[in-house]
Specification:
- It is a single chain.
- This protein has 580 residues and is mainly beta.
- It has 2 domains: 197 residues, Thrombin, subunit H (Beta Barrel), CATH 2.40.10.120; 255 residues, Neuraminidase, CATH 2.120.10.
- It has 5 helices and 36 strands.
- The strands form 8 sheets. The chain has a 6-stranded antiparallel beta barrel. A 6-stranded antiparallel beta barrel has the order 7-8-9-12-11-10. It has a 4-stranded antiparallel beta sheet with strand order 15-14-13-36, with no helix packed on it.
C-alpha cells in the first residue's frame, strides 16, 4: 500500500507541471507585421512581440475507492489515506512591453545662406584661369585637383602653344584632351601640376528660378575686339537668370550679365557659391547686346560623365569629326551639322530660302554654302558659332563653293558669263577670275589635296563627265555615254569618288590615278554626293534607297553601309569635316 501511495504521489506531481502550449495543443506565436506595412508607414513596431503563456491548474485530488469488505467478518476496513494534491505551479511572469521608439521629428532642409558678391568672387576666383595662345586668349574653369580645365571649344580652336596663366605670374602648358563642338566645350589638361584646389560645388541648374542672381568671372578683351588684348586681371559682372532657350539646337541659360569677348569659358556662379554654367560670348549674332548665354552645368555634366571614365581608361579621343549636310526637315533647305555617328544633330541656318551644298574649310573653322535667301543664289561663309558672312553679291547665280587647302581662296560656279563656269576668288581682297570659259556647263569643282589641281564635271563633250585641270592642262577623266558628276578627291590624292549613271541609275564609283574604276554602291535607289572622311577610310553620301533622301556612310571599298539620318525630309549634300 505504501508503494502504491508513492506512485500516486509521483503521478500527481507530474500532472501539475505547467505547459506553454495553446489550448489547441500548438505552440502559441504572435503574428509579425508584414514588410509592406513597414515600408508604407516608414516606422518600426511600437512594442516587442508578445508570446502568450498558459497557467497550469492542478486538478482535484482523486479519492481512491475503498476495497470491498469481506462478508464473513464485519471488521471495518481502515480509512484510505488521501493522495496529496499536486503543488500548483507559479504563473510565468509576462515579458515586459518594449518602450516604443520615439519618432524622429522631420527637420527642415537648411536653406543655403546667400553670400555677398564679394564673398562669391573670393570663393570662385581661384577656379577661373586665363588661357593664352598664339592667336588670342580666353577663360577657363578648373575642375578640382586633376589638373583639368574646361573651356569653350571656340576659345582653343586651332590654338597653338596653348598655356594657362597661374597666380604666381607664370604659365603652364596645356593640351587638348577632347571637345564637343556642338555644345562648344573642350576639356584641357595641364602638363605641369597646378596649385591644389578643392572640387567646385555644382548647382542643379534645373532649379534656378527666374530672377535669381548670377555672377560671371572671366578675362575679357578690355575695350577692344582684338583677341591678343585680353585683360591681365579677372573681371566680374553681375546679372540675373532670365530664361532657358535653345540656340543652334543646344540648350542655354539666358542672363543679362555682360559677357564680353574673352569671357567665353568663364565661370557663372550662384549667390550661394555653386557652379551654374559656363559663359559663351558671341553665340548668336542676332541677339541683343544686353543678353548673354551660359552653357548649363547639367549639359556640361553630361559630357564629363562621358569623358572622365574614358580619360581613366585612355580611350578619350583628342580630335572630333562632324558631318555637315542640307535638309528640308523643317520646311526650306537649311544647313545642319551632326556627329559622324548621326547623333547630336544641330541646325546651323534658319532663314527664308534654301541653304545647300555645305563645304568645310581646311581647318574646320568655317563652312561655305550657297543660298537664295536674298533672291539670287550667292556664296556665304559661316563659322561654327553660326555667324554668317555673304561672300558674293551679284545678279548672277553662284554656288558649289570649294576651299583651297590654305583657306585663302575658294572655287565656285557662276553663270555671270551666260553659262556655268568655274571661278576663283581670293578671300583676302575679294578679287578673282574665271578658271574655265566654255559655252557649256562646268560645275561642282573640287581641289586636289596639294592645291595644284582641280576636278569638276562638265557637259562640254556632250553628256556630263569628270574633267580635271592639272596645272594648266585640261584632262577628261571619264568618257562614258552616261552622266558622271560630283567628283571628290580622296585625302591622299590617289582616287576620285564620283556619281555615275552608267548602270541605269546613279551609283557611286571611284577612279584611281591609273584609271582603275571601282563600283561602290549597287541598289535600286539614287546614291549621290559622295564625300571622303578626313582619313580616307570612309565615304559619306546621300541616298533615297529607302524612299526619301537620307545620309549614309560606308567604308571606302563600299562595305559596311550604315544609315545616319532618318528624317521625313530630304537630307543631302553631306560634307565630312577635317579633325577639329
Amino acid at each position: 500500500m505504501r508503494y502504491i501511495l508513492l506512485v500516486l504521489t509521483a503521478v500527481g506531481l507530474l500532472a501539475g507541471c505547467g505547459d506553454t502550449r495553446s489550448p489547441t495543443g500548438e505552440s502559441a506565436s504572435a503574428e509579425l507585421p508584414s514588410p509592406s506595412a513597414l515600408i508604407t508607414t516608414g516606422t518600426t513596431p511600437t512594442s516587442a512581440i508578445q508570446v502568450p503563456s498558459t497557467t497550469a491548474t492542478a486538478g482535484p485530488p482523486e479519492t481512491p475507492k475503498p476495497s470491498p469488505e469481506p462478508t464473513a467478518t464485519s471488521t471495518p476496513s481502515p480509512t484510505a489515506t488521501a493522495t496529496p494534491s499536486a503543488t500548483p505551479q507559479p504563473t510565468p511572469t509576462p515579458r515586459p512591453t518594449a518602450t516604443p521608439r520615439p519618432t524622429a521629428t522631420p527637420q527642415p532642409t537648411p536653406t543655403p545662406t546667400p553670400l555677398s558678391v564679394a564673398q562669391v568672387v573670393a570663393r570662385s576666383q581661384p577656379y577661373v584661369v586665363r588661357l593664352e595662345h598664339a592667336n588670342g586668349c580666353g577663360s577657363g574653369v578648373r575642375l578640382g585637383n586633376q589638373n583639368l580645365i574646361l573651356t569653350n571649344h571656340h576659345v582653343i580652336r586651332q590654338a597653338k602653344d596653348l598655356v594657362a596663366a597661374i597666380p604666381d605670374g607664370g604659365t603652364v602648358p596645356l593640351r587638348v584632351l577632347t571637345a564637343d563642338i556642338g555644345r562648344d566645350l573642350a576639356l584641357l589638361q595641364s602638363e605641369s601640376p597646378l596649385p591644389p584646389i578643392q572640387a567646385l560645388p555644382w548647382m542643379n541648374d534645373t532649379k534656378l528660378e527666374l530672377g535669381e542672381s548670377l555672377v560671371v568671372l572671366g578675362y575679357p578683351f578690355p575695350g577692344s575686339e582684338d583677341p591678343l588684348q585680353c585683360s591681365k586681371s579677372i573681371t566680374v559682372t553681375q546679372g540675373i537668370f532670365s530664361g532657358r532657350l535653345n540656340v543652334l539646337g543646344q540648350p542655354v541659360l539666358q542672363t543679362d550679365a555682360a559677357l564680353n569677348p574673352g569671357v567665353s569659358g568663364g565661370l557663372a556662379i550662384t549667390s550661394t557659391g555653386n557652379f551654374a554654367g559656363m559663359a559663351v560670348s558671341g553665340l548668336s549674332p542676332t541677339t541683343a547686346e544686353s543678353v548673354g548665354f551660359l552653357i548649363p552645368a547639367s549639359e556640361i555634366q553630361i559630357r564629363l560623365d562621358e569623358w572622365l571614365p574614358k580619360l581613366e581608361t585612355g580611350d578619350l579621343q583628342a580630335s572630333q569629326h562632324l558631318i555637315a549636310f542640307a535638309s528640308n526637315r523643317d520646311g526650306d533647305q537649311d544647313i545642319y551639322v551632326m556627329s559622324v555617328t548621326g547623333d547630336n544633330v544641330v541646325q546651323y541656318t534658319d532663314t527664308e530660302g534654301d541653304d545647300i551644298f555645305p563645304s568645310w574649310s581646311a581647318s574646320g573653322e568655317y563652312i561655305g554654302f550657297h543660298s537664295n535667301r536674298f533672291g539670287d543664289w550667292d556664296i556665304f561663309v559661316m563659322d561654327l558659332n553660326g555667324t554668317v558672312q555673304q561672300v558674293t553679291d551679284s545678279v548672277a547665280q553662284e554656288g558649289h563653293v570649294a576651299w583651297s587647302p590654305n583657306e585663302n581662296e575658294i572655287l565656285y560656279t557662276s553663270d555671270s558669263e551666260g553659262d556655268w563656269d568655274i571661278f576663283l576668288m581670293s578671300l583676302d581682297d575679294g578679287t578673282g577670275y574665271a578658271v574655265t570659259i566654255d559655252p557649256n556647263s562646268d560645275l561642282a569643282p573640287t581641289w586636289s589635296p596639294d592645291g595644284t589641281s582641280m576636278a569638276f564635271h562638265s557637259n562640254r563633250a556632250g553628256n556630263f563627265d569628270i574633267w580635271m585641270y592639272v596645272g594648266n592642262e585640261l584632262q577628261q577623266v571619264t568618257t562614258q555615254a552616261a552622266d558622271e558628276t560630283y567628283p571628290k578627291w580622296s585625302p591622299d590624292g590617289t582616287r576620285i569618288a564620283f556619281v555615275s549613271e552608267r548602270d541605269g541609275n546613279p551609283e557611286i564609283y571611284t577612279i584611281s590615278e591609273a584609271g582603275k574604276m571601282t563600283r561602290l554602291t549597287e541598289d535600286s535607289g539614287a546614291d549621290l554626293f559622295p564625300a571622303w572622311s578626313a582619313d580616307g577610310s570612309k565615304i559619306v553620301f546621300a541616298s533615297d534607297r529607302d524612299g526619301d533622301f537620307d545620309i549614309y556612310v560606308m567604308d571606302a571599298d563600299g562595305g559596311n553601309v550604315q544609315q545616319l539620318t532618318n528624317s521625313p525630309g530630304r537630307d543631302t549634300n553631306p560634307a565630312w569635316s577635317p579633325p577639329l
